[in-house]
Amino acid sequence: MANPLRGEVVKLYKNLLFLGREYPRGEIFFKERLKKAFMKNKDVRDPKKIQELITRGEFVIKELEALYFLRKYRAMKQRYYEDNAGS
Q: pLDDT tens-digit profile of 19-71?
């Protein structure tokens, strides 16, 4: 019998892999950590615990998106306000 949450877990893993491409410390570093985290929890069978882990993963996605947005904002700000830094 397949776990009904399996699809959500696979979707979460794929989303995190996609977001990890721009990780500041490198894509390989991110992939290794991601795989390690998922392998650590591969034997979890309790649906409530799986749902908690999915929720934690969704939080990580939001944090990564915020990190990337902030990085892009800073880069854009430096381009436009570079001359006023000395004032």
A: 999 888 999 999 999 999 999 999 999 999 999 999 999 999 999 999 888 88
Neighbours of 86 (CB within 10 A): 5
Structural tokens at position 57: 């993963």
Return the axis-axis angle of helices 6-19 and 27-40, rounded to nearest 10°: 160
Q: For residues 24 and 58, give the distance between their C-alpha atoms in angstroms, rounded to a whole number.
A: 19
Q: What are 63-68's contacts with CB under 8 Å, separation 24+?
A: 64/16, 64/19, 64/20, 64/23, 65/19, 67/24, 68/19, 68/22
